[in-house]
Amino acid sequence: MGSEWQTGSVGDLFDLINGYAFKSREFQTSGIPVIKIKNIKAGHFSEHEFSYVSRSYLDERPQKLARNGDLLISMSGNRHDGSPETWVGKVAFFDKSSPYLINQRVGALRARDNTVVDPRFMGYLLSAWDYQFLFISIATSSGGQANLSPKQILNAKIKYPSLGIQQKIGRILGRLDDKIALNHQINTTLESMAQALFKSWFVDFDPVIDNALAAGNPIPKALQARADARAALGDQRKPLPDHIRQQFPDRFVLTEDMGWVPEGWHISTIGEAVETTGGGTPSTKNPDFWDDGVHPFCTPKDMSQLKSLVLMDTERHLTDAGVRKISSGQLPKGTVLMSSRAPIGYLAISDIPVSVNQGIIAMLPNQHYGPVYLLCWAKTNMNHITDRANGSTFQEISKKNFRPIPFLVPGKGILEAFNEQAEAIYSRILLTSEQTDALTRLRDTLLPKLLSGELRVPEAERPVAEII
Prior knowledge:
Elements: E1 6-9, H1 10-13, E2 14-18, E3 32-35, E4 40-41, E5 44-45, E6 51-53, H2 57-60, E7 71-74, E8 76-77, E9 91-93, E10 101-102, E11 106-111, H3 119-127, H4 129-138, E12 140-142, E13 145-147, H5 150-155, E14 157-160, H6 163-202, H7 206-215, H8 221-233, H9 242-245, E15 252-255, E16 259-262, E17 266-269, H10 270-273, E18 275-277, E19 295-298, H11 300-304, E20 310-311, E21 316-318, H12 320-324, E22 336-340, E23 344-350, E24 355-356, E25 360-364, H13 371-380, H14 382-387, H15 399-402, E26 406-409, H16 412-452, H17 457-467
Parallel strand pairs: 3-10, 19-24, 20-23
Antiparallel strand pairs: 1-14, 2-11, 3-6, 4-5, 7-9, 7-11, 8-13, 12-13, 15-16, 17-26, 18-25, 19-21, 22-23, 22-25
Helix pairs in contact: 3-6, 6-13, 6-16, 6-17, 7-8, 16-17
């Protein structure tokens, strides 16, 4: 490292605030989110799968609130033998202004008064591999779990540059992360647009209700509230183009399996409408199936880490021999994937040819049902899917129980109109995901070089400016 870097300890720069030992009975379904170890990923804070507690804790435990600019650290976890997602000593920069409470075994490193620290830079520094390795190596073990004490964390030695260089490096890497975060927000919005369109046409039946109102046809009691809401909109309703609107009927019929549905639509099953399949895992003890593999192999774990609905790569890869060991082989690009256990309900569209393990049900799009349609259908019907699950150790939906789920079949022209709009949305999602992947790779390339001094700030600014 350059001569402008100095050596000290974490405790020279930060105080450590311990989390609070909330009892399981204190958690509830809404309220103030509680940051647990699972919310701390390597280098970033994950806002998924929160537990919540009463707002009264804002007054009762104000000292346990995370602050904007804190560095969150996991004080318990695994060593190298576990998944990186579960390692002890993971550090994430926290930049939220709304209230979050800190759970036990989560620490908040907070810059001490009068210290020359850029918290964002320090988040990058302490989450880098050298310090992740350091925290793992100094942790003590108890009952198969690695633990860090406040003293061990604060006494850990670090090297860091002047505040000016910290700010420059933090700003460069931060620009990439800010753009990545913005892309995630864009894709979330686009995904919501696709889901809203699906719900309007195929769940709420808005175009059919509008046609029925215009024709003066009766509205079933079960749909009357929706019809009243549509009628109340008056001229504010956005009419579909005539060539699409005319594809929808103007009456409803009562069915045994799905209640009131648009006239002329019929009921099938997901197994009859599209091809569905599963997968398996070749023996991990046989290197012929894994060593130097290049073919993506997807598990529910891969899906749990996605930031959008697009699967672009996987943690593990198979050889040609490994792919041949799976009955479903390699599934084509565009396949819709759903985790069928541990837990049920992760969803993704594969942008790569992929093999899957036994914890995934794959739906293969066809000329009638595109990937976005099938993904929206699965998300909309997730309660029906989980209702058919069983299992003593963990809940699982088998292909046998999945395939008979009722599936409403609209007219061909309606499906074509939806698929056209959905494909346009998905193309934008895909472009954004590809840019995010490029941004992530650039950040991960620049990070160790900037932190080691191998790359100077001006040299790093050029590629960042080019991609942003």
